[in-house]
User: Fold this.
Amino acid sequence: MRFDLGEWSSERLTRIESALSQWVVADAPAGLGEAMRYAVLDGGKRLRPLLVLAASEAVHGHDEAALRAACAVELIHAYSLVHDDMPCMDDDVLRRGKPTVHVKFGQAKALLAGDALQALAFELLVPNTNTKAPGIPDRVQATLCRLLAHAAGHAGMAGGQAIDLASIGVALNESQLREMHRRKTGALLEGSVMMGAACGEAGETATRELRAYGSAVGLAFQVVDDILDVTADSATLGKTAGKDAHQNKPTYVSVLGLERSRAYARELLDEALRALKDSGLADTRALQALAVMVVDRDN
Amino acid sequence: MRFDLGEWSSERLTRIESALSQWVVADAPAGLGEAMRYAVLDGGKRLRPLLVLAASEAVHGHDEAALRAACAVELIHAYSLVHDDMPCMDDDVLRRGKPTVHVKFGQAKALLAGDALQALAFELLVPNTNTKAPGIPDRVQATLCRLLAHAAGHAGMAGGQAIDLASIGVALNESQLREMHRRKTGALLEGSVMMGAACGEAGETATRELRAYGSAVGLAFQVVDDILDVTADSATLGKTAGKDAHQNKPTYVSVLGLERSRAYARELLDEALRALKDSGLADTRALQALAVMVVDRDN
Assistant:
């Protein structure tokens, strides 16, 4: 049966955007909510949320848990962009084709909005159970928090950012570069897949192979990002192109060259697709299509 | 029977410091762990962790859950200080008698260390259950995450900081000032008490009265902070004295005057002690003594 990613995504994106708009609070005090919404809404490919939903569907996961997890990973991603764009970090003024949060709201509010988005991400995962709807099992709530905290923290994204910061102007070899990216972008992408898996009952084999899939897709995403940084223009990217080379940051292109980077991205895609085949899961078409999209995208 | 807070605290502080030193990772990459440890270890009164442990003991809570919750609230407190001290916020160079984190490690690493500390706080609350020790019930883990996220986020601490930021040079009335402080410092102090309570089985009355206690102590803490900001010197405080007046921030002293602020702190103490009496809990002596300490402290 034919699978149409556009059609599949369209319905999920509507749910994700609607949930984000509902959950990212407009009424936070002193303009904080406005900055939080600006950072999150109307932008982004929502790759991470789509990975959460696709993985959850593959294991017949709990729908509300998956939607909350999808929004939570997006909030972590959004907060990391807000902080990463600040003058003391990458000092960037353009993101998703719009002024960055600190340009629009000032640095102090950008800092606080990022902090509040991280807290809100965890808050989404543990909804108050005093409602009439059949709640998300406590075990699932705790597991989702565990996966998200691990992916976002020193062992994951924040740790990767620290390596990134320390690596400006430094010649990394391929394995050091891979270690940096596994944490910086890979951890949250892999975490998205694992959080989706945690919304259902994935067996040992499926869990292992989904992790392998997430890990390969996470790394492929960064390799392609590095390729696009040198081959695409700012308008297509919606952010400043050529930034890494300009900042003298090591990238896959600078370490492997353009052609070998392209070949490596294809290898990682094959690895991801093989893991899905080995997972024993009945329907992984959305996960397959998302992996292809990650490698074939032009922004 | 006589209760000695110094003796009670001493054993708990040893456990807290040892746990923080174990859990705040030295091996986070690229010097991030060093900045995180600098922000957390060897400093601070540990009031929030002591409130967690005292509340947990009052309800015969789960020991490991309480110790993890105690450290988690301290990590949230520590991260908020790191970000609050940064040049784009309060721009302070002295904290606990030492150079602030961004002075010592640079702004980018301070930003990341704060971010990683927030993630680690949640990670501590949901330990991996693949251990032999009798684990913390999933329900307790999820409840602790819920309370911490709420206390730290837009409805709590981060929201209060945003109000604080917007109130520089603005004349707040007493109720606006109370609203700001309920969020900025009160939410995490009240949250500490509620997290301690969540480690055990507090009934409805006890939960309500512990919340009232936490709320009163949280507000009293801020009133006393405002008093000390004008009456103590920097050496005693371990941070810059007179800062609020200098930055033209509204404080209890500026709104109520010194004498009425002192009287208000006593009223809040009475309120806290009355709540403990009404809680029906058998032994609340540590909570009582901590409330007295908050109001009588000189730093």
Q: What stands out?
A: Chain A touches chain B through 58 residues (CB under 8 Å). Chain A has a mean pLDDT of 93.
